[in-house]
Each structure stands twice: as C-alpha cells, then as structure tokens.
Write a structure and sequence with these properties.
The complex is a heterodimer of chains A (105) and B (419). Chain A has 105 residues and is an alpha/beta fold. Chain A contains three helices and five strands, in the order E-E-H-E-H-E-H-E. Chain A has a single domain (9-104), classed as Transcription Regulator spoIIAA. The chains are: A alpha/beta (105), B alpha+beta (419). The structure holds fe (ii) ion (FE2) (2 copies).
C-alpha cells in the first residue's frame, strides 16, 4: 500500500511531503506513487521525501517511476529526497544516474 | 568493462521481464506501458514513448508516453521517403543527431529537440513497420553506449512483437466478422434460391400448386416436433422444398394428366427421384443431405416403394420425414382424378401405415404437432393456414388424433429414433 505521512510545515517554501514507496513501485500499479507525488507538487510541496524503508529491491519499472517523480519535481522546482535507501539500491541509482538528481539521506 | 557488469545484469533483468510481459498477453495497453517503463528503467532514461504505426494513415500513434508533456504530438506522420528509410534501417536505433536529413526529423524537429529525444527505434517486424520507440536523454547525461543501444534494440524487438501480435489479433477478429456476414449473406441467398426452385417446380404442376412449398412446411413442422436444432429444421424444410425437383424434367402433360397415368407414363414420372438426386448432388447444401431426401422420398419402410425398394433402416431418415410430409399433402389436396380426403380419414391412414410406409415416431411427431395446435398450445396455426380452417375443424378430429396417438407405438421393431 501507498502510505502517506505528510507532516507539512506551515512555511510554504519548505513544505515537505513524505511518500512511502512500498513494494508496489515495481509494478505498473506503482504509477500511482508518481500521481500522488504530482498532486503534492501541485499543492505547493517543495520537498518530496520518498521513504524506501518498506522497499526491498527496486527493478526497472521502479526506476522508471522514480525517474518520473524526479522529472515532475524538476518541473515544479521542487527537491527530491530519497530516505532509508538500501545499499544495493543506492549503487543501482548511482549507476543509472538517479543520484545526480536527488539528495540521499 | 568490469564496472559495467552490474549495469548489464540490471539491464538483462529488464529484458527478461519484458519477454515475460509480452508472452503473458495481458491487457495490450498495460503491456505497452510496462514495456516503456522496463526500457526506461533498464538504462535510466528520463523520458520516452512507444507508438504504433498505422500503415494506411502512415502515422505513428503514441500508445504510451513518459515525461513528454502535453505538447508532444500524439500522432506523427511519415512520408514515403521516411517509411523507405526506416525500413532500410531495420530494427536499429537511429540517432536523431545524425539523421536530421530525414523529412521526419525536419518536420518534428521542434518537438523532438524540446524533449531531448536522442534515439528513435523503428519497430520492424517481418519487414513491416509496426511502431517506434522514442527515447530521451539518460539520467546520467551521458551519451548512449553501443551496448546500451543493443539492449534497447533487443527490447524493441519484444515491444514490436507485442504490437504485431495485437495487429494480427485485430485482423483475425475483423476477418471472422466479415466471414460471419458473408455466411449470413450466403445463407439468405441459398434460402431464396431454394424457395425460387420450389415455386418453379410447383409451376409445372397446376393441379398441385404449392405442393413443394407445403411439403417444405410440413417437413419443418415434423423437424420442430422432434426438437431438432434450428439448422436441422431449416435443412428438413429445404429437403421438403426440393424433394420433387426432378419433376422439372418430366413432361408437363404427364404431371398434369387429368386421369390415372398409364404404365409408360408412370415409369417416366418415377424417374423424378433419381433425376432430382442428379440435379441436387453437385450443389453444396449447408445443412441436411438434401439430395438423398429427393432420391428416396418415395421409398417405404416395408420395401414396396421406389426407386430402389429399400427397407426401413436403409432409407435415410430425412427421406422418411419428407415422405410423410409428401404423402400427407397428397392426401389432403385435390388431385386431378381424386378429391382430397377428410381429415379423420387421413389420420386413420397414417396410423394404419405407420410401420408399413411411414416411420412410426415421425407419424407420432406429426400428429402431436397437429394436436397441440388444435388444443391451442402452438405458437402459430400452421396447419390451419395450410389446410384451411374448415378442414381443421372437422368433427371429432381431436378424438381421432388422441386415439391414434394412444395406439401408436413410438418406434417400430425396425426403426430407431435417430434425429
Ligand atoms: Fe415425389
Ligand atoms: Fe411430392
């Protein structure tokens, strides 16, 4: 399931939304994560935190959907933060260039 | 190359998944969307699209897009030169930067450049363009390497096959539909032809006007009573309509003779079943064995019929059915030398001849149909329409039918119900 916890601050410029990637990311259904991110961005969120604590592995579909998230954030001048990323996923993102576009915490 | 190994493993994983996705034959739209994600995710491609090619409109229609925005055209047309060049190129990636001379890239340069499309892969399956993949820059910002392009083409082949399969299915569905329409047309044509023939046969015989048509209708009633399928019922009706087609070659004066014909004339008339068979045999009849009905409709269970004196089981069932319908019409219509017989008389005749001339279960079916109509259980008053109201309202007809049905055993020793 996509769970969202959105402890948005009152300050619009730093409004943050946390999105849990879950394991849906690796299927076509993962597109809903990207849609959710877009909604957040449209409502003024400037910092998207994608939480990978519930994501074991990330396949190509997952990568593609995350690239869509990054692309949407760019169009909205928002930052993307990847949190709780496993080591092997981080290596994959390095290799494919995703880490160039996000902050990893 | 060593540091590229994890990259390769990741990309090959995507390739394997794509193969599975295409083989699984899920929803086509979903397959294409998934394919686009797999290709993009395999190499970290920021944006792209998959289009299907319409040969007739000569245009690429987008099936799935990622990150191309609303302003990228959903339908892109090719000119003949583009088509020729794409086909010559085969299923290989075209680097946009080095293909600017192609009319396609000139026409769409604004959109292609605005979205940073770097590769176009024409999806060519069996020498036909089925679609194309548009791929933008990579997340790394680096140019595509040779091995990456090879992986893209391998994946493109899968996507192309998925589209080609879909096209083939659509084509098969279209043809099946066309075939069905054609079949309906043929069936109507056949039906009309049969009726026209029946009218032509009846024309020759002015005393028995409408005989073939009535025999067709009685045959239909019997088949219906036997619970035959719609096609079988139609076949029985057709056999009835055409049973006397051989009479077309018998001299008119013999058919119309207002007296009992002599032996020579009789021999001439008795050729009509065999002649009918010859006429009908070369025609393909969609339902029942219509030629056999024509050939044997004057045979009797007891072997005293003609032309071959067959007995019971040797006689095709459809011929037995038409024989009953034929005899019933002969008894219930005025002949040049004989007025029609009263209904009760005819029922009696059929009962007595069940097992001799007629197949008993057919007599039962026929009488049951008549009784149902008299009792008001039939949808249509077919007997009344064919025989006249007065005839069907003959005194005691219901009682006669009931007692005949009580007396009749549904099968003779020799006859077996074989619908
Ligand atoms: Fe006949
Ligand atoms: Fe006849």
């Amino acid at each position: 399931m996509i769970r969202e916890t959105s402890p948005e601050t009152n300050d619009d410029a730093t409004a943050t939304a946390v999105i849990t990637a879950g394991d849906y990311l690796n299927k076509l259904a993962g597109e809903s994560i990207e849609r959710l991110c877009r909604e957040k961005l449209d409502s003024g969120v400037k910092r998207l935190v994608v939480d990978f604590s519930e994501t074991e592995i990330i396949n190509s579909i997952g990568v593609s959907i995350l690239l869509d998230v990054i692309d949407s954030a760019k169009k909205h001048d928002a930052k993307v933060v990847f949190a709780e990323l496993r080591e092997d996923s981080r290596e994959l993102f390095d290799m494919l260039g995703l880490t160039k576009h996000v902050t990893i915490v | 190359m060593i540091e590229q190994q994890p990259k390769l493993i990741h990309a090959f994983g995507a390739l394997a998944e794509l193969g599975q996705e295409v083989a699984n034959k899920n929803n086509f739209q979903e397959t294409i969307r998934t394919s686009l994600h797999l290709v993009s995710g395999a190499l970290g491609i920021m944006r792209g699209g998959v289009a299907r090619y319409s040969r007739f409109g000569r245009e690429l229609n987008m099936l799935a897009v990622r990150g191309l925005g609303d302003d990228f055209p959903l339908s892109l047309s090719l000119c003949m030169e583009d088509e020729r060049q794409f086909l010559a190129n085969g299923l290989n990636a075209i680097e946009v930067a080095s293909a600017r001379v192609l009319p396609f890239f000139q026409v769409y340069s604004v959109s292609i450049d605005a979205k940073g499309i770097e590769l176009l892969v024409p999806l060519i399956i069996r020498d036909e363009i089925v679609g194309a993949m548009f791929l933008g820059e990579k997340a790394t910002g680096e140019p595509y390497s040779t091995y990456e392009i090879e992986i893209i083409c391998a994946m493109g082949r899968h996507v192309g096959v998925a589209i080609a399969q879909r096209n083939l299915m659509a084509e098969i569905e279209r043809r099946a539909e066309e075939n069905r329409k054609l079949f309906d047309d043929l069936r109507t044509t056949y039906h009309d032809t049969v009726k026209a023939f029946a009218a032509a046969i009846d024309c020759k015989d002015k005393y028995t006007e409408g005989h073939s048509v009535r025999v067709g209708k009685y045959s239909e009633i019997i088949a219906n009573e036997l619970d035959w399928t719609a096609d079988q019922v139609e076949g029985a009706a057709t056999a009835g309509y055409l049973h006397d087609v051989g009479k077309l070659t018998v001299e008119r004066k013999i058919i119309n003779a207002p007296y009992r014909i002599n032996a020579k004339e009789s021999a001439e008339l008795n050729k009509h079943p065999a002649v009918g068979f010859e006429i009908l045999q070369p025609i393909h009849h969609p339902f029942t064995d219509v030629p056999l009905a024509a050939k044997y409709h004057h045979e009797r269970l007891d072997g005293r019929g003609y032309p071959d004196g067959l007995i019971d089981r040797e006689i095709p069932y459809i011929a037995k059915l038409v024989n009953l319908a034929d005899s019933f019409d002969a008894m219930t219509t005025d002949r040049p030398y004989k007025a029609r017989r009263p209904a009760g008389d005819v029922i009696d005749d059929m009962r007595r001849n069940a097992g001799q001339q007629f197949a008993p279960e057919l007599v039962v079916a026929f009488m049951r149909g008549m009784l149902r109509e008299l009792a008001g259980d039939a949808k249509e008053k077919r007997f009344r329409r064919l025989l006249g109201r007065e005839y069907m309202e003959a005194e005691g007809l219901t009682t006669t039918l009931r007692s005949a049905l009580n007396e009749l055993r549904p099968t003779s020793e020799m006859t077996r119900i074989d619908p």
